[in-house]
UniProtKB/TrEMBL annotation:
UniProt entry keywords in alphabetical sequence: Membrane, Transmembrane, Transmembrane helix
Organism ancestry: Bacteria, Candidatus Buchananiibacteriota
Name of the protein this chain belongs to: PDZ domain-containing protein
Record's keyword annotation contains Membrane: yes
Alphabetized InterPro entries for the sequence: PDZ, PDZ_sf, Peptidase_S1_PA
Protein family membership: Belongs to the peptidase S1C family.
Annotated TM spans: 12-35
Domain PDZ: from-to ranges: 285-374
UniProt-listed Pfam families: PDZ_2, Trypsin_2
SUPFAM superfamilies to which the protein is assigned, alphabetical: PDZ domain-like, Trypsin-like serine proteases
Length: 381
């Protein structure tokens, strides 16, 4: 009996061992399949990469263009992009040469700059930018193109020069309104060699006064400029001053101890005359005067207790002013009901009219306000 049970126990153990072996083998197969499906792709890739490359794999670092700037910075950039195609460089014409290097116009030899006013080649600059040279002594550079100057038209009152080149389809500058600028306003200068100077307006109605005699103005002399806060360099002579909308409000006219700008409103209305007749004609009154807004300490008897107006200093012989009865020490208060004040002096108001126009002047004479009709003459060359 005992022998029977011993045989059964050994048989059961053998069956358990066999079943364990079978299940172990099956589990290994299933485990291998799972590993092949879910783990091996990553594992093999990792092992392969590790075997081939001793250094760890790093994602490629691509440069990213990122600009950090204020709204004003972007406005300045956009204004520069708008005006830059309409700027030319003015150089002294080079003699004919076979030397390639001597044919190149360098930034250091730049005389001045100009802005394009018409797409057929009329542009504006200032007297100082051409340094008294004739048309045949000048060359204008626009991009990579070189142009001879075919015509020069000068305006003595604004000190602006109009130049003509033979060209077509040129980009044109947008002219703004120089009467709308404010002290402290941010403005920009740009020259033809792409130098940019961000500036601000110190005084939009500036009189350059070096002595008492410089206070004596003529009715054919603006006398006023736009004064900038910071000085420009010589390479900016004749270059445009523009606002953040890319509108030209003046041209750099003087770079000495101060940077002075000829306002665009002093010459913009001349363009039609220049295009039509290729000359400038200006109306003429014929007085010298003191602007009462600039004459501190002047005797009240002469001022007649007025804070603003044009005190006649002298009359030019045979001038319209003399012919129509104006007198020394008269104070001109207004022209056609436009008041003479800090913003508008006598010349600025007179130059709005045409030769031969009859205008009404409101005069203060010996304490009484009277009106005088005057027919404007023409400024002589």
């Amino acid at each position: 009996m005992m022998k029977f049970f011993e045989q059964k126990r050994q048989q059961l153990i053998s069956e358990i061992v066999i079943l364990s072996a079978i299940f172990g083998f099956a589990g290994g197969i299933v485990g291998e399949l799972v590993a092949d499906v879910y783990l091996d792709p990553w594992h093999n890739s990792y092992l392969t990469n590790s075997a081939v490359n001793s250094d760890p794999t790093v994602s490629e670092l691509k440069p990213v263009k990122r600009i950090i700037a204020s709204d004003q910075d972007f406005a300045i950039y956009q204004a520069v992009q708008k005006i830059s195609p309409a700027i030319l460089g003015i150089y002294q014409k080079k003699p004919t040469t076979t030397n390639v290097l001597n044919q190149i116009y360098l930034p250091g030899s730049l005389l001045g700059n100009g802005i394009i006013l018409t797409n057929d080649g009329w542009l504006a600059t200032v007297n100082a930018a051409i340094a008294g040279k004739r048309a045949d002594q000048l060359t204008l550079v626009h991009g990579q193109k070189i142009f001879p100057v075919t015509k020069i038209v000068s305006d003595k009152i604004s000190q602006v020069i109009f130049l003509k080149i033979d060209a077509n389809n040129l980009p044109v500058a947008t002219l703004g309104d120089s009467d709308e600028i404010l002290a402290g306003q941010v403005v920009v200068n740009l020259n033809s060699v792409n130098e940019v100077k961000v500036n601000s307006i110190k005084n939009p109605d500036y009189y350059f006064i070096s002595s008492a005699s410089s206070l004596v103005l003529t009715s054919e002399e603006y006398g006023k400029s736009i004064l900038l806060e910071n000085l420009a360099t010589d390479g900016f002579m004749g270059s445009p001053l523009f606002n953040l909308d890319g509108e030209v409000i003046g041209l750099v006219n003087q770079i000495n101890q101060q940077a002075l700008i000829s306002p665009v409103n002093h010459f913009r209305f001349l363009l039609k005359e220049v295009l039509k007749n290729q000359l400038v004609k200006r109306p003429y009154l014929g007085v010298t005067y003191l602007d009462l807004t600039q004459t501190l300490g002047l005797d009240q008897a002469l001022r007649q207790n007025r804070e603003a107006g044009a005190l006649i200093y002298q009359l030019v012989n045979n001038s319209p002013a003399q012919q129509f009865g104006l007198e020394k020490n008269d104070i001109i208060l207004s022209v056609e009901n436009q008041t003479i004040d800090q913003e508008n002096n006598l010349a600025e108001l007179i130059q709005q009219y045409q030769i031969g126009d009859e205008i009404n002047l409101e005069i203060l004479r010996a304490g009484k306000v009277i009106n005088k009709k005057v027919i404007l003459g023409q400024v002589k060359d």
